[in-house]
Amino acid sequence: MTVVLDHLAIGVPALSGGWELFGGVLGGTWAYGGDSAGFWWGQLEFAAGPKIELLTPTGGPDAAFLDRFLAARGAGPHHYNFLVTDIDEALARIRAAGVEPVGVDLANPGWQEAFLHPRDAHGIVIQVAQQAGPPPPSAPPRELPAPGPPARLDLIEHHVSDLDGAVRLFRDVLDGQPDAAGPGSAELTWPGGKRIKLVHQDGLPPGGALHHIRFTRAARSFSRQEREHAGLLARHIGLTVELAD
Q1: The CATH number of 152-244 is which of 3.40.30.10, 3.40.50.2300, 3.40.50.620, 3.10.180.10?
Q2: How confident is the model at residue 219, as a pLDDT?
């Protein structure tokens, strides 16, 4: 079985700020998206690193999970998605690690999924999924601006109260490859320049939180205006974004 960190999903009540930040400033290009029962989702891809997915509720009982999230926490990071080539083996690994997955749905052979509750996943939902193939092509939303200069989603930094437990989850269950470690931190990578840095921090109910994401450019530096604009947009969608040259 192989496991790949595919995307970071962000729950938002409105999509415009996310499109402007991840597309117009950070050079994300449309991958695919569409309507699901109760919510709409769309993904942007970058020069390297995981995709960003924006989620917004569209009404109905199937939007309840996202409505609850936004009511309790406001806009912000909702889940990590890991694509696996064998969902049964993934579930066996998760259970062997002492975690009981929730929301297990294996009925659709084209998309089978399960979730780890934030209390078991160090403060964020983790989705593991097996898909039969990429989603069908879809047109980008009209609100998506022309992409800015290409950038890499270079790093996700996630703070946790139990560093050893988080490393075991992301390394042993989710196939992250240890790349660097320092006092109170560990970095793991997946194919395609996808990287999570885990940092120990006490007092983080329910055990962890995404701290920030970092984008880098190779072609040219981020201007002061871009940095200020990105910071403002990121605050509106509940994120801290670091821009590095």
Answers
A1: 3.10.180.10
A2: 84
